[in-house]
Amino acid sequence: SNRLAELAHHLHLSTPGGGTERGVEYARRAGDDAMVRLAYEDAARLYEMALQQLNFVEDAESGLRCELLLRLGDARSRAGDLAAARETLADAADLAKRLGDAKRLARAAIGYGGWIEWMRAGADRRVIPLLDVFFWIIRRPPSPTHVQLMARLACALRGSADRERSEHLSRLAVNMARDLDDVRTLLYAL
Fold it and tell me: Angle of helix 62-78 relative to helix 82-99, nearest 10 degrees?
């Protein structure tokens, strides 16, 4: 609600040095609330505020920083600020790699590949390595995340010299989604 955003803003302005754990939490919660209300620009501003405050929190957890970067990247992407979203998600991916956090790395890779428009390889030299690195890092049981990564990578490779790989990944994604018996995941793959 607006009340959460007001509290987050008040804590941000009133704290010497600019940040407390409570201030970070209020800004994060207000950002989450703005996302639910589809107020993506507001959400991005609030996540930025949370990240600024986190810089002043002693012993701030890197996992929290990564999570806030992911949420900020998502908000920026949904607000249409795709260049800023990609930079934020690239930062989140780098941090997730350093932390060995496969789930957050997957979210960064999928988000970087495009929430709104699915990027092709020629559009950005980082997209394929980012999707590829994660795809080969995890070898776990099939999951919706695997399907999303394969589908994004297949799309990124469309129109490239590696068209055969694109088609192979696309088929794998659809077959895995069918095996998962998850309609949402299958629609995503298709």
Answer: 160
159, 120 contact by CB (below 8 A): yes
CA nearest 90: which of 136, 124, 140, 39? 124
For residues 181 and 168, what is the distance between their CA atoms, to the nearest angstrom?
20
Q: What is the DSSP letter of 142?
A: -
Q: How far apart are alpha carbons 124 and 67 in whole angstroms?
A: 24
- Helices 102-112 and 62-78: crossing angle in degrees, nearest 10, is 20
**pTM score, whole prediction:** 0.77
% helix / strand / coil in the chain, to the nearest 5?
75, 0, 25
Give the Cα separation of 25 and 33 in Å (integer).
12
pLDDT digits (tens, 9 = 90+) for 124-180: 677 777 777 655 555 567 888 888 888 888 888 876 777 888 899 899 999 999 999
CB-facing half-sphere around the CA of 157: CA atoms within 13 A = 21
Q: How many CA atoms lie within 13 A of 184 on its CB side?
A: 3
DSSP class of residue 114 equals: -
Backbone dihedral angles phi then psi of residue 116, each to the nearest 5 degrees: -95, -55
Query: How confident is the model over 57-80, as pLDDT tens digits?
Result: 877 789 999 999 999 999 999 999
